[in-house]
Design a protein that fits this description.
Residues 28-47 are annotated as: Disordered. Keywords: Mitochondrion, Ribonucleoprotein, Ribosomal protein, Transit peptide. It comes from Laccaria amethystina LaAM-08-1. By secondary structure, the protein is mainly α. The protein folds into 2 domains: 18-76, no CATH class; 85-119, no CATH class. The protein has 2 helices and no strands. It has helices at 3-8, 96-118. Mean pLDDT is 76; it is low at 13-18 and 22-29.
Length: 119
Amino acid sequence: MTFLHALRRPTCLRASCRMYANSSAPEKTAVKPAAAKKPSPASIGPSACSEDTVLTGLNYLKGQPTVLALPDKDYPEWLWTVLQPKVYEDDGPGGKLERVKRRAANRQAIMDRNFMQTQ
């Protein structure tokens, strides 16, 4: 594909133009929509969606069945702690915590210096 061909190609940002596997899957499976099942706030676990919710966009290969959310107990325990920030213990001078803080401060100083050079 040449550069000009890529420029002439129409850009389509509507959801109807996206071709995901679940929109053109040959198999028709009966799937309960997420809006039909209203779980109570007490029954929702650590996940953001309830069981049997259709996870759109995860199956990008054509001809594959739709991906449904599993119950929270079927996922590994470490999955619920992935987005939490790392906590380093203070192990004295020259330790891991001091190194992490020094590298973060150095990175920020470099970003500030680069920003000031562009002004």
